[in-house]
Amino acid sequence: MASTRSTLQPPLEKHSATTLEQRYFVSAQLFAREQQEIFARSWLLAGHVNDIPNPGDYFLANVAGESLIIVRDATADVRACYNVCRHRGTRICENESGSVRILQCPYHNWSYGLDGRLLAAPHMDEVTGFSKDEYSLAQVNVGVWEGFIFVSLEPDQLPLSDWFAPLTGKFSPWNLARLNCVRRITYDVRANWKLIFQNYSECYHCPGVHPALSKLTPYDSAENDLCEGPFLGGFMPIRRGHSLTLSGNASARPVGDVPSEYNHRVLYYSIFPNMLLSMHPDYVMVHQVWPRATDRTLIFCDWLFHPNAAGSSNYNPEDAIEFWDMTNKQDWHVCELSQQGIASRAYKPGPYSSRESIPAAWDREYLRHMS
Ligand code: FES
Ligand SMILES: [Fe+2]
Is 69 in contact with 83 (CB distance < 8 Å)? Predict the structure, then answer.
């Protein structure tokens, strides 16, 4: 949501930036290239450790066309593997989430441990030279940052801690690793995934699109501290004594122990390529952005609260969830309108305003990955 104040704006020449060429929003070839160059190569947000608190808890993630199983193993580590049986390739898990003791293929009942090792394969001991040790499930890189689970299909991926090194400790006061997801809403948006990031990265659109939000956070009040690279964003002040909820009241006890100046601020950060992290004093909202076609994006929006929030007298998560569900839908609507117009033969890249320096920076990062 953040656009920069004049004192924090990048050098002037960057303001001559224009929006991306039409082909980046409509070309199936470029979509396939994004999947290969970005989504099959980057660390991607897939969930939160508290989504799978116990051994055997799992969920599936669809990454660059691959189905992955993200599971907590018997030693409480989080693991990720391809959802592909080593016998004849069959999908092992069909349900999007659940809890299992072992991973058992439904076809011929090959059974795998939660660590992916093949434990049992009926009648395969009759096959000369067969060794279970050689048929573990294919593993995928997995890491945890501030409680969020990231996966990467890239075998030579740099460690997640290296990727997030520029943000080390930055968000610790928000207690992210301990928060619980209270609600997820899935949105199926008829727009290119990049429009979701560009929309999130400025509040130039807020006065017209978000009248309720604009009353609580002045649209031109953003201050960004990350202005170039894969991590972008900053904060916007919230009117004193208010919260970003329908009622304007706080929806829960504070999520963490943040410095006092942050008691009246909302932080908006985009984390390339699929995470939007919005930290409020009383709750945290996280969007996972999953491209499905040039003009279709699935968005998982999670609302996280303090683990003991339900015990506090002011606990009213719906107040926050409904506020942002309304605001999200306002955003998705203009993103869909943008997609429709960009697909026109009349579309030409347009000039970004001085309040759209972050979308322009996001585009530069995107093009670096695509070049
Ligand atoms: S395909 Fe999985 S057990 Fe045969
Ligand atoms: Fe918006």
Answer: yes
How far apart, in whole angstroms, are the C-alpha atoms of residue 328 and residue 187?
A: 9
CATH number of 44-156: 2.102.10.10
| pLDDT value of position 328 | 98
Closest ligand 1 atom, residue 105 Cα: 2
Q: Which residue has the tokens 């000369």?
A: 128
Return the ligand number nearest the Cα of 287: 2
Atom 1, ligand 1: residue with shortest CA distance: 88
pLDDT tens digits, one per residue of 161-213: 999 999 999 999 999 999 999 999 999 999 999 999 999 999 999 999 999 99
Q: What region, left, alpha or beta, does residue 162 occupy, with left being phi > 0 and alpha being psi -120 to 50 degrees? A: alpha
pLDDT tens column, 302-327? 999 999 999 989 999 999 999 999 99
Fold of 6-41+173-370: Naphthalene 1,2-dioxygenase Alpha Subunit; Chain A, domain 1 (3.90.380)
What is the pTM assigned to this prediction?
Answer: 0.94
**Long-range contacts from 28-37, C-beta under 8 angstroms, 24+ separation:** 28/294, 30/294, 30/370, 31/291, 31/293, 31/294, 33/370, 34/291, 34/370, 35/64, 35/65, 35/291, 36/64, 37/369, 37/370
Distance CA 29, CA 82 (A): 25
* CA–CA distance, 2 with 268 (Å, rounded to integer): 7
Name the phi and psi angles at 141, rounded to 5: -60, 135
- State how far the Cα of 319 lies from the Cα of 110, in Å rounded to an integer: 47
Residue nearest to atom 4 of ligand 1 (CA): 108
Average pLDDT over residues 360-368: 98
Q: Taking residues 337-344, report their average pLDDT.
A: 98
- The residues facing 66 across adjacent strands are 63
Provide the residue ranges of all domains of the chain, joining segments of one domain with +. 6-41+173-370, 44-156
6: pLDDT strictly greater than 50:
no
Q: Whose CA is nearest to atom 3 of ligand 1?
A: 108
